[in-house]
Structure formats: C-alpha cells, structure tokens
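Lab meeting, item 3. Inverse folding demo.
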C-alpha cells in the first residue's frame, strides 16, 4: 500500500511513514525522512530546546570528574568526532575500567571521547587487546 507525503508530495510505501494513532490509516501525514529533516532544522533554529541534552552532556563530564574545559579539549581533538572511528559524533567519555570499574571514573583514567558504537564495542570486548586482535585476525581470515 502507498501513501503520498504531505511535505515532499512523493508517493511512498506505508513503511516510510511513522505510526500515528490520530490518523485514519494509522500513519503520519509526512514521511520519516521529511520529519527527520524538519526536526534537525527545528533544533538548529531553537538551540534552547536542547537544554535536556546539554544537561546530560554536563552530567557526563561531571561523573568522570573532569572539568568542562578538559571535556571540550577532548572533543576539539577530533572536531567533535569519535576518537576511534573519526566518523560519528563523540558522546561517551571513555576511561580505563581497570582503574575505575563501572560508569564513573576518578578523572585521571579518562582516555578520550567515543561514539556510542565504538564505546559499546570496546566495552563488549572488555578493553582486552587480545580480544580486539583476535577479532581483527578473524576478519582478515574470512575476508
């Protein structure tokens, strides 16, 4: 089944429209890509609306006992991008879990700022070089 987006006027599959209980067919009137573009522009035009996110970021550097200046200098090292992949937005402070197990750190063991994916991967591999090298060797073998 198809539907026409009220914004871009393109006919698209119903899967391209988010669910909405206030609509007859159960789908929103504008497609997901038009809605995403609208929201991106909205938050760009209204930075004060992102206070909640800024509060979360501030909490992030506070729980790792580093100053805002130190946090900003870490972000500036790669222009706000992940210190590992250099592609995604850096959002997670990485620290040495041998020094400080868990989600908080002493501040002295902070290593950088990673994107969510790289931080999760590093955590799942338990910061273990042998695990990481083993995975690299595996990729080389199957490629």
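The presenter then showed the designed sequence:
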């Amino acid at each position: 089944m198809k539907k026409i987006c009220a914004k871009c006027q393109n006919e698209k599959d119903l899967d391209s429209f988010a669910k909405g209980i206030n609509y007859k067919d159960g789908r929103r009137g504008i497609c997901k890509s038009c809605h995403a573009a609208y929201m991106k522009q909205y938050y760009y035009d209204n930075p004060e609306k992102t206070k909640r996110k800024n509060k979360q970021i501030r909490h992030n550097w506070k729980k790792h006992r580093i100053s805002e200046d130190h946090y900003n200098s870490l972000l500036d090292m790669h222009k706000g991008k992940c210190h590992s992949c250099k592609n995604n937005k850096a959002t997670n402070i990485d620290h040495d879990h041998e020094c400080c197990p868990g989600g908080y750190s002493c501040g002295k063991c902070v290593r950088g700022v990673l994107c969510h994916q790289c931080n999760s991967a590093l955590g799942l591999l338990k910061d273990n070089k042998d695990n990481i090298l083993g995975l690299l060797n595996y990729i080389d073998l199957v490629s």
